[in-house]
Write a structure and sequence with these properties.
By secondary structure, the chain is α/β, with parallel strands linked by helices. It contains ten helices and ten strands. Helix 4 crosses helix 5.
């Protein structure tokens, strides 16, 4: 689909981009559930080395962190930008420049983090940049709380989808993200992502992903049952035509009010049991985390670098 200024204005004037369906007239300056108007805002654009190895590579992923979020989990690791109060307003033309600047820095790809509420503007910027020489793979990094109709705007523009699958239980998603329909929406979104990319394609020389889908699941303290249900769903649905990234980096941030059960990190025993479960059910295309990943130091500074 050709992304035009008219289409952007239409979508922003009655916003239904995400499942919140807030209908805000963001074009007129109203703030949507995501915390943003129609003006693009981003908080960081830099080489990022903490993604999966086939995304970061040796040179880093050219990552743009957008301000605001449509999900807002109580335990959000990127809370500083999720609330939408951090970042700088930019034009779609400036965003296209940023993509090309990251390419000039030898980024492995362009990595769009939490861009769903700016999806039409981002798609427009991608088209501009591609017309001006952007050749890197495009990674769409998302919570998966998406509308399929919105994701269709990205068809032909995104090469790699990097979605979360946070919860299977509607009780958990309601409690921690105020989104009882999370699994329903996320499962449909991931199905659309898979339709667009198909099975993974890797560069045999660099080991970098060129096309495909990596579904991330962040373990939460005491929720091993839900994690097992998610892994089983993914494997039963997609087999080894996708990669599954099982993450142990949950960090209870200081100064944030959390439910009692979320005030600790994942134990080594919890993590190893989930990894063993994944192996037992036949997951072969996967990533795990090693070392001390549950640290605030792994959260980048949202200081508007590169914006």
């Amino acid at each position: 689909m050709k992304i035009t200024r008219e289409l952007i204005d239409n979508l922003m004037s009655d916003c239904t981009l995400c499942p919140r369906q807030c209908h805000a007239n963001r074009l007129a300056g109203a703030i949507g559930f995501c915390g943003q108007t129609a003006l693009l805002r981003a908080a960081r654009a830099a080489l990022h080395f903490w993604e999966e190895p086939c995304i970061s590579g040796s040179t880093g992923s050219g990552t743009v962190f957008f301000s605001g979020c449509s999900l807002r989990c109580v335990f959000c690791q990127n809370r500083a930008i999720a609330l939408g109060k951090t970042g700088r307003t930019i034009t779609p033309e400036r965003l296209a420049d940023i993509f090309l600047e990251l390419q000039d820095k030898n980024a492995a790809n362009i990595n769009l983090v939490t861009a769903d509420h700016f999806l039409p503007q981002v798609a427009y910027s991608l088209e501009l940049a591609k017309n001006r020489g952007l050749t890197l793979p495009i990674v769409y990094n998302t919570s998966s709380y998406e509308e399929v109709s919105s994701l269709k705007l990205l068809e032909g523009l995104v090469d790699i989808y990097l979605p979360d699958l946070k919860y299977r239980s509607s009780e958990l998603s309601a409690k921690y993200s105020n989104a009882p329909d999370y699994f329903e929406k996320a499962a449909a979104a991931i199905k659309e992502m898979y339709r667009q990319t198909g099975a993974p394609i890797m560069d045999p020389e660099t080991g970098l992903m060129k096309r495909g889908l990596i579904v991330r699941h962040l373990l939460l303290p005491g929720q091993s049952k839900d994690s097992k249900q998610i892994l089983r769903y993914l494997h039963n649905t997609y087999g080894n035509d996708i990669y599954v990234s099982i993450m142990n980096q949950y960090t209870p941030l200081v100064g944030i009010e959390l439910p009692q059960e979320l005030k600790r990190c994942i134990t080594t025993e919890e993590y190893e049991k989930i990894l063993s479960f994944g192996e037992r059910i036949g997951i072969e295309q996967g990533f795990c985390q090693e070392g001390e990943t549950a640290e605030e130091s792994f959260i980048p500074p949202f200081d508007c670098e590169g914006i």
